[in-house]
Amino acid sequence: MNVLAMLRDVGLQTAASVLLICQLLLLLSTLYDNSRVGRIFWAFMLISTAAMLWPRALWIVPCAWLFMATVLVVMTWRSLTASLLGLLTPPWLMLPWLMWNDRVAAAARSFLGDLLPTWPPVYDDDRLLMMVAWALAAVWAASCTARYRRERQHFRLRVRRVFQMFSVFPWLLLLWCAVVPDDAAALLPLSAVASLITSRLWMPSSLS
What we know:
The protein is an all-alpha fold. The chain is built from eight helices and no strands.
């Protein structure tokens, strides 16, 4: 029974990771374009939907706002409102079903219980192996960050902004995994996408 529960949790976390990847790519499409508030709404709606499968997906929200303000340069009152509406839409749509089945309180307790990690974190053998995989990802991120710092003047401004975002993102994920080792497997797909994008730093054609 424990194995089935574990497989269910892994499946939900993987599905949430896929939604977060889609959200990340959707946010990237708004670079320097304050008029695309609709895409910001859908991006944050994907985060909220992912959080319904895996509550700690909400931890991405502060990072998304930070990237919107510093890298994408699309943080305005309209975009902030769109992001908040996107976050509120999925639970608002689900609220009538929860009220009909008298499960509002139970759902809230379950969500808040999964939102906060257990402390202190437990590092058993399986988690340590996953952390080794993340250490390799950190080495890759460090090499890409160093190359970006050294050669960023060769990139166009828009490309520079994207690489700036993805040179920071893996470190935030690594910090997340250090604090909550249970989430390491679920966050690997996000790290893989960041690695694929930053791998272009090593291609000669990217220097233009």
